Here is the input.
Amino acid sequence: MPSEAAGVTRRHEFVLFFDVQNGNPNGDPDAGNLPRLDPETNQGLVSDVALKRKIRNYVALARPEAPGHEIYMRDGATLNAEHRRAWTAVMPEAKPEDQKKLPKEAKARELTRWMCANFWDIRTFGAVMTTGVNAGQVRGPVQLAFARSVEPVLPLEIAITRLAATTEADAEAKGGRTMGRKHIVPYGLYRAHGFVSAPLASHPVKGTGFSDDDLALLFEALGQMFDHDRSAARGEMATRKLVIFRHATALGNAPAHVLFDRVRTLRVHKGEAHEIGADATDHWPPARSFADYRVTVDRDGLPEGVEVIER
Here is the structure.
C-alpha cells in the first residue's frame, strides 16, 4: 500500500471568481445545451461537477506520473477495474464473488485507504465505490457549490454555416451548405464557493489523507485550469481571483457564510463604483470585461484565528 501523507489539519474556505467571454461555460443537456440559467433571476450557473472535471483534468496534466495522483473519474475509465486493483493489493486471495461485499471493518478501511492513497480525486472529493466490485465509500474533504454569475446574463443563439456536407445526398440537396446553432454568453463573471474540511482529511479512521501538498495543488488547479480547457464552444474563460480563508483550527474559527459575506463585487464605470443593482447603475452599459467589476475583501475586524489569502 502506498505511503500516506498527513492530512490537512486546518479548515479552509475559498471564493473563486472566473469569467467567460463569447462562450458557453456550462451547457445544459436538458435545454439543447443552452448555457445554464437560474430561470427566476437569469443569473448564469456552472455546476460543481463541471468545475471538478476541469480540476481533475489539470491534475492529470500537471502530475501525469506522480505516485498517488491518478484520476479515478477520467475519460474511458472502468471503475470496477480500479476497485479490483485495490482488492488485489489488500486481499489478493479474494475470489470475484467475494468482492461484491465489503469485508470486515479493518480490511474495508484498507481498501478505501488504498484507493485514497492512489487516486488524487478520491482523496480530494470522495467517491462512491460500490458499483459491483465493492471498495466502499469515501466522503471527500473538498466540496464545491454551483457557481453563479454576479449579474444576470443574456445568452445569444448564433447561426453558423458549414461548407462540407455530411452525405452525398446533403451535398446534392443543399449544395454542401448546412446550418447550425451556437450558444454563447457575451460576458459573465461567475462566483463559486468551496470548502475544505480538516477532519475529513485528517481523521484517523474517516480521513482521506488529503494533505497540504494536495491543497496546494488544488489551489494551483483553480488558478490555471481554464488555460488547459480551451474549446471553440467555451470561448475565453479565465480565473480572475481566488480568495482563501484559512482557519487556525480544524473545526474553524468563524462560520463560512460570515466570511463569504466579506467578499463583495462592485460594478465599475468611468471611475465610479457601486453595489450591483444600485440605482446609480441603472443606465450603465452591460459588463463586457473583468474591468467592469471590482472585487473587494473586508479585512477589518476579521475573527481571531482567520487568515485571508488573495491570489
